[in-house]
Each structure stands twice: as structure tokens, then as C-alpha cells.
Design goal:
144 residues, alpha+beta, Metallo-beta-lactamase, Chain A, 9 strands
């Protein structure tokens, strides 16, 4: 049975890979000082479906623009943050609208809000919330 994988990049940065191999990045500051392999991971990212930003601080926006341009990932953020990302930072405007996708095409993960993020797999009671970044030494947590 395929699993959902959660990888912590340090700070508030996470990668979620769904059972159908959909890739979501949350606050993708991969090159932060905690994640020593950030540049390598950034270079290796090829397929990202969604980038979710909690707010516009640099330690949360991080590498979002570079990743978005490289992978054509759709940006999920508040209206104001999406506007700032496109006009001030150069995120591709065709990938940054204020409509939050409710369900990914494979129905493997559900997004109920942009702030705070609440992501869960349909039919389960497991959820991911922003506060999970306070867990120590978290690198990858399989969810079954």
C-alpha cells in the first residue's frame, strides 16, 4: 500500500508526497541553515504540484519563486501574498491565483484553508497543521 510521506526541511519547510506521487511544498525555505543539504535538494526538485505559503516572511517564502519557475508549481497563498509574490518577487502569475484548490486530482490529500494550513487525507482523521514544525528531529514521517 502506498504511503504519504512528510519530510521536514527545517524551520517551517515541509514536503508532502502523496500515494499518487503528488508533491506539495509548505513554506519552502530549503536553503535555511538547519537543512545542510538544501542546495542539493533544491537542485534535485523536478516535480512539484503545489507550493503552500503560510505568510510572506522571507523564512517562509524562502525558495518558492525559484522552485515555482523551475517546476511550474501552483502557488497557494492568500490573495495579498499571491499578488506580492508575482509583482515583487516574480512568481509566474499564471500559477499564482487566489483560488485554493480543494482537492488534488488524485483525491489523495485535501486542503481546507491557506491559513492555518489544514491538510488531511480523505477518510482519515490525520491532519497536518502549521504547529507540527515544533516537533524535534523530524525528517520523514510515513502516514498509513
Amino acid at each position: 500500500m502506498a504511503q504519504t510521506h512528510l519530510t521536514w526541511y527545517g524551520q517551517a519547510g515541509f514536503k508532502i508526497v502523496t500515494p499518487a506521487n503528488k508533491v506539495l511544498l509548505i513554506d519552502p525555505w530549503l536553503t535555511n541553515p538547519v537543512f545542510t543539504k538544501g542546495k542539493e535538494e533544491l537542485g534535485a526538485l523536478k516535480d512539484v504540484d503545489l507550493i503552500l505559503l503560510s505568510h510572506g516572511h522571507s523564512d517562509h517564502v524562502g525558495d518558492a519563486v525559484e522552485i515555482g519557475k523551475k517546476t511550474d508549481a501552483k502557488l497557494v497563498a492568500t490573495y495579498d501574498l499571491s499578488a506580492a509574490m508575482t509583482t515583487a518577487l516574480g512568481y509566474p502569475s499564471n500559477l499564482a491565483d487566489s483560488e485554493t484548490p480543494d482537492i488534488l486530482e488524485d483525491n489523495s490529500i485535501y486542503s481546507t484553508a491557506t491559513w492555518p494550513f489544514v491538510l488531511s487525507r480523505p477518510g482519515t482523521d490525520r491532519a497536518f497543521a502549521r504547529t507540527i514544525n515544533r516537533l524535534p528531529s523530524m525528517r520523514e514521517i510515513p502516514m498509513d
